[in-house]
Design brief:
Strand order of the largest sheet: 3-2-1-7-19
Distance between the termini: 25 Å
Strand content: 15-25%
Number of helices: 17
Shape: globular
Oligomer: single chain
Radius of gyration: 24 Å
Bound molecules: ligand NA7
Number of domains: 2
CATH topology of the largest domain: FAD/NAD(P)-binding domain
CATH superfamily of the largest domain: FAD/NAD(P)-binding domain
Largest sheet: 5 strands, parallel
CATH class of the largest domain: Alpha Beta
Number of strands: 21
Length: 548
């Protein structure tokens, strides 16, 4: 590992891992600092029972190595956390990535040294490292948040957060478990926790729209067909709004396998009310994924929300519990679609109780459980499934200071300002992977990560070969880009006044309400990045090298 690397990288998730490989291929020396004890990022930390990816694994995988594509077997269509982490470990071994990585190292400060034009990183242990380039590969959902509930510290039992689940086995047998939060993590964890615990009490503030996930094992023929077509598939990903190819293995899918997406027209509004009900009866909640107008047409959205609620009422036996589980204050498409395994059926179990916090808010946590305005719920274990300070959290927590000591925190006081989610003016030679203003979480993350890392690598290479010392966006470029990011988000379901999602920072008290990812589509975004590079970075200021 180099002591004077060309590039310092923060984070050894999929972004930091690929960055090591890609930068090395250009002859750059790198060093990665990672808070965890190994690679994997999100998949290293989020190991709660039921954790799983909502993008098919044959798509949610690296595309940079044809050999890797050919040799890796995915056991399921949508992989569980442990299989994704196994994949990350395999990649780290295969490309010998760990030799440039320092684990158990949390970065506490990232400062630009004006006089020497270098970045200095300070770690929790007080160690300092310097390099001319710094890449923040810190992830979009990597800072777990816990609500500030009075008395939380007095709880005498075990406390876990889904985003920092322990690495040792957590034995819940015979225990009373309380879980707070019903977002993706809560919805995935609840059925598993209910199976393991003596009793599970679910504290729900906002009901979720969740659709049963595809639970198929991977068939060898399907995997083989992907392998045969991988180059074409990667190309298709590059031209898809969300970075997924939607490749359908023709040889291995039987014609009789009718799914809602090919059995009906693409518009819900094209179906008669009778046809809509028949569709829901036949295919269940998953049918709604087949209609694109649900996400673009408010009338279709309203109808879909009603169909969704009617269907849930048929899935949960106790009518009062069923009623409490119905999302009513916002529509489908405002938040990331949650996929589940047995979520609603879990509320038919005798050992599960649902508490609706809109009827009876949490007042405090006591030494023995959770107190709401109407009752006390005893618990041996509390699980927080309360989400993350998304998109900006990890960057702000790193205490980044740019030119003249300017804090990123001050620059972003009213919301993140960055160009293409890649760089900020005033922070020369500092890059962010899948930063705010890039498609990031609205895209297949592996595709978004590879595109960003490739762009950054080529940019650094350009600077070296053209004898340029530094790069940072023009102030006008980032202001214009932020306006564009807001403009394309306006009028979508994501920014509806009733919508409070982490995309908007709405889950963090005091966080500016700004739609952070780029909703204009991955291909349009990628074209803009490519245009910048092809034209010699006109939207950026390029600085001279320091004289030796
Ligand atoms: P989310 O989607 O932010 O969900 C967090 C959940 O926690 C949500 O139901 C919140 O209710 C609930 N929450 C948060 N604070 C509280 C308090 N104080 N009291 C009660 N309930 C609370 O995070 P996830 O980890 O589930 O998923 C994040 C992403 O990870 C996901 O979209 C995937 O991309 C992967 P609220 O809705 O705020 O009322």
């Amino acid at each position: 590992m180099s002591d004077r690397p060309d590039v310092l990288i923060v984070g050894a998730g999929f972004a930091g891992m690929y960055a090591v490989h890609r930068f090395r291929s250009l002859g750059l020396s790198v060093k990665v600092l990672e808070a965890g004890s190994d690679v994997g990022g999100t998949w290293y930390w989020n190991r709660y029972p039921g954790a799983r990816c909502d993008v098919p694994s044959l798509e949610y995988s690296y595309g940079f190595s044809p050999q890797l594509e050919q040799e890796w077997d995915w056991p399921e269509v949508f992989s569980a956390q442990e299989d994704i982490l196994r994949y990350a470990n395999h990649v780290a071994d295969r490309f010998d990535l760990r030799r440039d990585m320092q684990f158990d190292t949390r970065v506490t400060a990232v400062e630009y040294l004006d006089d020497v034009h270098r970045w200095r990183l300070t770690t929790e242990r007080g160690e300092t490292l310097e390099a001319p380039f710094c890449v923040m590969a810190t992830g979009c959902l990597s800072v777990p948040v816990k609500p500030d509930i009075p008395g939380a510290a007095t709880f005498a039992g075990e406390v876990y957060h889904t985003g920092t689940w322990p690495h040792h086995d957590v034995d819940l047998a015979g225990k009373r478990v309380a879980i707070i939060g019903t977002g993706s993590s809560g919805v995935q964890a609840i059925p598993e926790l209910a199976r393991q615990a003596a009793h599970l009490t679910v504290f729900q503030r906002t009901p979720v729209y969740t659709i049963p996930a595809n639970r198929k094992r991977m068939r060898a023929e399907v995997q083989d067909e992907f392998r045969e077509h991988y180059r074409e598939i990667r190309e298709m990903q590059q031209n898809n709004q969300g970075g997924v190819s939607n490749f359908r293995p023709i040889k291995s899918v039987r014609r009789a396998n009718v799914s809602p997406s090919n059995a009906f027209p693409a518009r819900l509004l094209d179906l008669t009310p009778e046809q809509r009900h028949a569709t829901m009866e036949r295919f269940g909640l998953g049918a709604l994924l087949g209609f694109r107008d649900i996400y673009t047409d408010p009338d279709a959205n309203e109808i879909a929300n009603d169909l969704y609620r009617e269907t849930v009422l048929t899935m949960v036996r106790d009518p009062e519990t069923a009623e409490r589980l119905l999302p009513k204050t916002y529509g489908l498409g405002c938040k990331r679609q949650v996929l589940d395994r047995d979520y609603y059926d879990t509320f038919n179990r005798d050992n599960v109780t649902l508490i609706d916090l809109t009827e009876t808010p949490i007042e405090s946590i006591t030494s023995r459980g959770v107190r709401t305005t109407t009752g006390h719920y005893e618990a041996d274990v509390i699980v927080y499934a309360t989400g993350f300070d998304a998109m900006t959290g990890a960057l702000l927590r790193a205490n980044i200071r740019g030119r003249n000591g300017r804090k990123l925190e001050d620059k972003w006081r009213d919301g993140p300002v960055a160009y293409l989610g890649l760089q900020m003016s005033g922070f020369p030679n500092l890059f962010t992977v899948t930063g705010p203003g890039s498609p990031s979480v609205l895209c297949n993350m592996l595709v978004a990560i590879e595109q960003h890392v490739n762009w950054i690598a080529e940019c650094i290479d350009y600077l070296r070969t053209h004898d340029v010392g530094s790069i940072e966006p023009l102030r006008t470029s980032e202001v214009e880009w932020v306006a564009h990011v807001n403009e394309v988000a306006e009028g979508t379901m994501y920014t509806a006044p009733s919508c409070n999602s982490w995309y908007l920072g709405a889950n963090i008290p005091g966080k500016p309400r700004i739609f952070m990812p780029y909703v204009g589509g991955y291909p349009r975004y990628r074209a803009r990045c490519e245009q910048e590079a092809a034209n010699g970075y006109p939207g950026f200021a390029l600085g001279d090298r320091l004289s030796p």
